[in-house]
Amino acid sequence: MKEVWESDTQVFREKKFDERVINAVVEVKKNKNPDAELEKISKLKINAVTIKDENYPKLLKEISDPPALIYIKGEFKSEDEISLAIVGARKFTPYARLVVEKIVGPLALEHIVIVSGLALGVDAIAHKETLNQKGRTIAVLGNGLDKIYPETNSRLADEILANGGALISEFPIGTPSFKQNFPFRNRIIAGLTLGTLVVEAALQSGSLITAKAALDYNREVFAVPGSIFNDNSLGPNNLIKMGAKPVICYEDVLTELNIEKKSEHNKARKIIPDSKEEAILLDILSSNPAHIDNLVESSKLDIVKINQTLVLMEMKGRVKNLGGNQYIIQK
């Protein structure tokens, strides 16, 4: 990008760029100042991440047409590699809401990162249900991150950020939510995730664009079957006929993606401590985080023994030091 910015039109012509592309670059260079743009996004607490950066999402980098530059509010995390896209109709039915509660909620509890498009309908329900379960969710927008579209989901966007999630877009700030932007947005939703689950969608729905992108990227496509009398079920039912994995419970997704149920693993880990001291400390920490002084007082154990046990438990990934000698069970 730096080379493009610093080159003149003659270089582009020598490299046989289309004249329309050359004119577009000239127009941008005439009207934009990179330093001013960087200052704008900094004030908005937006980071620009290029495909060359270490923190660029690994899964997104693997697709055939990854964006060279993406904007993000929040941050990308290594856990985002275990993620699922949820897409569906804007005009959803009560059935879709129940489906999201039955499937997305438990997946969030299993620490699956939920990715969607912040649109009205199924997208918004998926984000909200993930937040209800204290899970991590990422919203991909079809416009610049200086505006939330639709505006009615502005509070939801704030909640996503406040709860450790992220908002991302490949469109520069100031870009409106043009209709033609959304197929590009949908490919990012598919590219960020291991698979895409279609809850409800008409045959001409944008959700099916996301599903097609997932297929093109060799990612899993899941669909929730629905009534043959409901137009919103035509999309997922047709996907199932074409080979998409039917989903009737969250375990179907975990099985297909070969993901172990973490809740059962954590439960087993709590039930079978490796020593009497571990059992005592895990019992105390089972309800709330605790300071080491509280652990000493409640356990009646020697502080040296407590410190030794906590170090071992941290190494096993059973507890986490939140700082200031405040401990919590590692989820």
Portion in helices = 40-55%
Alpha-carbon distance between the termini?
A: 41 Å
What is the third-level CATH name, the topology of the largest domain?
Rossmann fold
Number of helices: 16
* Strand ordering within the main sheet: 1-2-6-5-4-3-7-8-9
Which spans have pLDDT < 50 for at least 5 consecutive residues?
265-271
**Radius of gyration (Å):** 24 Å
Q: What would you say the CATH architecture of the largest domain is?
A: 3-Layer(aba) Sandwich
Q: What amount of the residues lies in strands?
A: 5-15%
Shape by Cα distribution: globular
> What kind of sheet is the major sheet?
9 strands, mixed
CATH C-level class of the largest domain: Alpha Beta
Backbone structural class: alpha/beta
Element order: H for helix, E for strand: HHHHEHEEHEHEHEHEHEHEHHHEHHEE
Mean pLDDT across all amino acids: 90
Oligomer: single chain
